[in-house]
Amino acid sequence: FAALLEPAVWGAELSVALRGGDGPGHVYVVEPTGPFEDDPNVTNKKFPGNVTRSYRTRHPMTIVGEIEAWEAHPPEVLQSMLDNIARLRADGQDVIED
What we know:
Order of helices and strands: HEEEEH
Oligomer: single chain
Largest sheet: 2 strands, antiparallel
Shape: globular
Number of strands: 4
């Protein structure tokens, strides 16, 4: 989960695109029910620290709302991100740190 809207929008858009779905996806306001940590897949990678304020937890999240009005990325920007993900997969670099 992310504390900032921009990474949450990317998550919504990419989840829809990667599953072959239609529509804008959903951005939920959530509260963790247990401990959480910086997401190691984005923390200290391109920039030091956790600039996207992205986190992960093994505990359930409570949905407390949905942000319905958010601006989607232009189609060419989303496609560029999808192309980069495909390139990482082809190069064997789509590693998720557990």
